Amino acid sequence: MNLFQRVTGHLSTITRHKIKVTQLCFKMGLYKQGLLHDLSKYSWVELSAGFKYYQGDRSPIDAEKKALGYSLGWLHHKGRNKHHWEYWLDRTKGVLECVEMPKNYLKESICDRVAACMIYQKDKYTDESAYNYFMNGTDKDYMHPNSAALMKTYLTWIKEKGLDEAFEMIKADV
How many CA atoms are closer than 13 Å to the CA of 88, on its beta-carbon side? Predict the structure, then answer.
């Protein structure tokens, strides 16, 4: 894939993702978060990594981590976006602690995960996709236990009740 294809492909992917997350956030009543979601993806440090490591079927972050052992784009992104559980890590007295995510950011994270599955899986997306990704990954092992449990609950609702009904339930869960 040449540079032009990687640049246009990455810009298209992150913009479609941003629009989808915004729509999902609006559906959940998170208007400000929907509008501001992932704006850091348009910063140079994140864009340049995306352009270089764009593949089209998964996040460039994974390819950058594979190539370098870390991702500057991801380090920048997670430090500026509160809907990522990694934002909520803190070191106190030499011990790394997971801080419980505020519910509004956890809800935005649900929108982010669902949208990412929709964008990358395309016609293979189902209401189980985000649940399966979460359960097969390791995020739940490192998140604050209450945040991980609530994430699993919300994703289970989506899997079992469908997106529309589950989003109404999540929106109402204050």
Answer: 21
Going by C-alpha positions, the residue among 30, 4, 14, 3 that lies closest to residue 170 is 30
What is the number of domains present in the chain? 1
What interhelical angle do 3-27 and 103-121 show, nearest 10? 130
CB distance 74 to 80 below 8 Å:
no
Domain around 73 = 3-172
pTM of the model: 0.94
Intra-chain end-to-end CA distance of the chain, in Å: 46
Q: Where are the beta strands (DSSP E) in the chain?
A: 89-92, 95-98
Residue-wise pLDDT tens digits, 136-166:
999 999 999 999 999 999 999 999 999 999 9
| 44 CB-contact burial (10 Å; exposed 0-12 / middle 13-18 / buried 19+) | exposed
